[in-house]
Design brief:
This protein folds into 4 domains: 99 residues, Arc Repressor Mutant, subunit A (Orthogonal Bundle); 76 residues, Tetratricopeptide repeat domain (Serine Threonine Protein Phosphatase 5, Tetratricopeptide repeat); 90 residues, Phosphorylase Kinase, domain 1 (2-Layer Sandwich); 181 residues, Transferase(Phosphotransferase) domain 1 (Transferase(Phosphotransferase), domain 1). It has 24 helices and 14 strands. The strands form 4 sheets. A 5-stranded antiparallel beta sheet has the order 8-9-10-12-11, sandwiched between helices. It has a 4-stranded mixed beta sheet with strand order 3-2-1-7. The chain has 552 residues and is an alpha+beta fold. The radius of gyration is 31 Å and the shape is flat. The relative contact order is 0.05. It binds adenosine-5'-diphosphate and magnesium ion (MG). The site of adenosine-5'-diphosphate (ADP) has 16 residues, from strand 8 and strand 9.
Length: 552
Amino acid sequence: MRVYLTGGLRVEGEGSLVRQGSFSFPLATLAFAYFICERSRPVPAAELARVFWPDESPPDAAVAIQGITQKLRRTLVRLGLASDLRLSGTDIYELECTSDLWVDVEAAADAIHDAEGELRAGRPAGAFGPSAIAHHIARRPFLPGECGPWVDSQRDRLRGILVRALQCRGEVYLWNREIPLAVEAAKEAIALEPFRETAHQTLIRAHAALGNAAEAKRAFTRCCELLASGLAMSPSSETQRVYRSALGIDHRSAHGRRGRRSAVATDDRRPGADLKTELRRLLRESYDIERELGGGGLSRVFLAVERALGRQVVIKTLAPDSAAMLSAERFAREVRLVANLQQANIVPLLSAAVVGGIPYYTMPFVSGASLRPLLSEDAPVPISRVISILRDVGRALAFAHEHGIVHRDIKPENILISGATAVVTDFGIAKAIERAQSTAVETRMSLTAVNACIGTPAYMAPEQIAADGAIDHRADIYSYGIVAYELLTGRPPFGDPSVQAVFAAHLLERPRDVRCIRTDTPPALSDLVMRCVEKDPTLRPQTIEEVLSVVA
Ligand SMILES: Nc1ncnc2c1ncn2[C@@H]1O[C@H](COP(=O)(O)OP(=O)(O)O)[C@@H](O)[C@H]1O
Ligand SMILES: [Mg+2]
């Protein structure tokens, strides 16, 4: 018996044919397909419930599942399939097959495995048949009309098989000198999986086989661009080797031609080069980079003029030669989230891109300084000014929290003064950088690089220091409290020069009451600040709105 789960459910028995429409009750198709894929294995009702109702099971899920399985049994009988397929059990179900069962998705997986094996063994002719089978099955939709995480995961799997099948076919066509077909297959594979370097290699070799060096070069350049913009990576040495040998370029002479620069992105990234010079060169057409504003660790900040609009902007980058490289894709994702934060007290994002492997984004230049110089002045900040700054920062946080974004790095340097208004910058960026750090740790990058950007100890919430993973918007409320404390008293509560001591103090020490240090603080404000800096997040104001009701 043959079961097709792609292109519409179909069961072919001896002389019989059953189509998807015959499984007529709700969830019938999904239940049947799931039992087929998991056949001869006990499937508990709870597992079925997760497949049927991934978001939330109905209260009577077990009863509903019994109903579904009973109907399925009756359907199998009605369709004449019951002699081959037997569904048993009440709470734990099992589909047994008495005859040999062929299932298309399994056949596709076997076929692609065989095809790749033949290619590896240097037998492209043997790969022809199996790659055609895998391609034929994998390009059809899995259970059309059905949805849910299980269906999605099966579709993802088939998509992976399809890409591999296209890749194999490309190789087979190349070997058979059917070059235009090889080009087509490789291009289709790249469209599905842009970062698949082996497909790019096939394409480069196909163009070279046609004697078209310009196209081969274009294919290589395109590969470089895709990898740079999506993953901030250069092509592997194997891809570079394929490119060189396809074009008949000798390795050493290619390296010897210093000074003559090729247009491809790999040459554009020289990790050792000074970042400012590098950015200046890479962005020269759009921006005139004037000077560095500061930053450190994984991020650097430059003041520039955007040529097209003749305005000053700030360009912020993640340094290319660090762990951040690995997280460029995540960085881009975070940036997209932050791009939606448009509110008067939030420094907006103007644009974001990756150039020569360096992810960067731009924002308006805020000409007033940050809170830092204000705090370094001898005179205390007037109470009315403190309240107005706290109100602005609170509004920015309220907007971000409402959009599900936690800042994670609220500190005076990230609060800029624009006229009479305070604006907050670096939303969400801390998270992208943190992720870069954890990638760095996972990949055992140098610890100096990791430590250089560990955040700002003086303003970190205890739960952030403990890194217990459960950080929410209340971490921002803590940091906000520390900034407020510093605005009022001139110093953050824990400012010991050693990082360890500051961490320990955040975790264990109760700060002195604000009013003991600055006696003219209104009691409501000082109470608020002291509550914001509670160690236990549940003792802090639970939302920034609560804070705003005091400083508004
Ligand atoms: N949009 C901006 N306009 C003006 N100055 C900025 C802007 N963004 C950042 N800066 C300045 O650049 C400095 C460095 O920024 P950054 O790399 O975020 O490091 P940090 O916030 O840790 O100081 C900040 O202290 C701030 O004074
Ligand atoms: Mg900053």
